[in-house]
Design goal:
The model is unreliable at 1-7 (pLDDT under 50). The chain is an alpha+beta fold. It has helices spanning 19-35, 41-62, 93-100, 141-149, and strands at 11-14, 65-69, 72-75, 78-81, 85-91, 109-111, 119-124, 133-137. 37% of the residues lie in helices and 25% in strands.
């Protein structure tokens, strides 16, 4: 019996909010709830729970996905075939700050989250696209760069 082709996904990451952000959401919900305590205790509890539910839903839906799958690199809503990519350079926090500051090309495509301090810079070799490179936030820059090179 022949072996089935591997169906592994080289890289998938969701750029979730960090723990501090989730705590801040709960604190905000508590503050909104306290504002309704003088009106009615049950209403205050409902408002607090509603703020947590709506806030968590919005944060989950807004978290971009970064993945390398089936020969395509996806970052947020953008995607490009891996064949059109050049070098993928993992960036630590200092290098990311430099890439987004003095070295930034205004034509670059950015998928960033402020609470993630590392990234990958990926060169593009698409003659039909004026974008020279992408800078994509990731918590695992070495693993993403390795998946892009694979």
């Amino acid at each position: 019996m022949p072996d089935a082709p591997p169906t592994t996904v080289p890289y998938v990451e969701r750029l979730w909010l960090g723990p501090v952000g989730w705590v801040l959401l709960v604190v905000f919900a508590l503050m909104m709830s306290v504002a309704f305590v003088p009106v009615d205790l049950r209403l205050a509890a409902v408002v607090g729970l509603a703020v947590v539910a709506v806030g968590a839903g919005a944060l989950v839906l807004a978290a971009p996905r970064v993945e390398v799958r089936d020969g395509t690199f996806r970052a947020g809503g953008a995607h490009i075939p891996v064949a059109l990519l050049g070098d993928a350079l993992p960036l630590d926090a200092d290098a990311t700050r430099a890439e987004l500051g003095p070295r930034l090309d205004a034509r670059a495509h950015l998928v960033l989250r402020g609470w993630i301090h590392t990234a990958v810079r990926v060169e593009l070799h698409d003659p039909q696209d004026p974008t020279p490179y992408w800078v994509v936030s990731t918590r695992h820059p070495d693993r993403l760069a390795a998946a892009l090179h694979a």
